[in-house]
Design a protein that fits this description.
alpha/beta, Rossmann fold, 225 residues, globular, 36% helix
Length: 225
């Protein structure tokens, strides 16, 4: 459904996977990858947003590299330079805002695992973001600029997550509340990290994934249209 494109960023160009809605017009959504890279699952999520009426773009933050190895994924994530990645994510936002198909000119971010935290980080650095979605977001050492955050947040987490713990989610929720930020947090009981990823049968939870998708589309309809 979608296609690979190049967009200006960081003094050069970054590749990304772009999909357009059948209607030809819609708000923009930046989809941020898990630590595996721009794998087929993330492209499928982009296509799914396009089918739901959005112009969706997933920037390739690993520049062509993907992996199925957790060890390699961890190394790729930790070698990611956040300052450069932020410029690429900002480039994705600017690309969508300048795209003729993006109407209204509103942007949502959404990310999974590593990308979930990057979704929040990007929203905190870019006031053009109108809605931020986090799926079980975690990235060691990366701190979003929460006081600068302007977008409302929808956070979707897993009770049995050993990477992004319930305690860490509650801490974030308290931080957002103390700063007066608009945030809705949902912790799904008895499900694992990556419960939305239907290519990983050992953790995928159909009921939680379907509920999460409904929450995301409702959240975006309220904030992007």
């Amino acid at each position: 459904m979608g296609e690979m494109v190049k967009f200006p960023s960081n003094g050069g160009f970054t590749d990304g996977y772009l999909a357009l809605p059948e209607s030809g017009k819609g708000p923009g959504v930046v989809v941020l990858q898990e630590w595996w890279g721009l794998v087929p699952h993330i492209k499928d999520v982009v296509d799914r947003f396009a089918r739901a009426g959005y112009v969706a773009l997933a920037p390739d933050l690993y520049h062509g590299e993907t992996t199925a190895s957790p060890d390699r994924a961890g190394k790729l994530m930790m070698s990611l330079r956040i300052d450069e990645a932020e410029k690429e994510m900002r480039g994705a936002i600017d690309f969508l805002l300048g795209h003729e198909a993006v109407e209204p000119k509103k942007i949502g971010t959404v990310g999974f695992c590593m990308g979930g935290l990057l979704s929040l980080y990007t929203a905190s650095k870019n006031p053009q973001v109108n809605a931020c979605v986090i799926f079980y977001g975690g990235f060691p050492g990366v701190e979003p600029d929460l006081p600068n955050l302007q977008a409302p947040v929808l956070g979707l987490y897993a009770e049995k997550d050993g990477f992004v713990t319930v305690d860490s989610v509650k801490k974030l929720q308290e931080q957002l509340a103390s700063l007066g930020k608009q945030a809705e947090i949902k912790i799904y009981p008895d499900v694992d990290h990556a419960f939305f990823n239907d290519t990983r049968t050992e953790v995928y939870n159909k009921e939680a994934a379907e509920d999460a998708w409904q929450r995301v589309t409702t959240f975006y309809k309220a904030n992007l249209f």
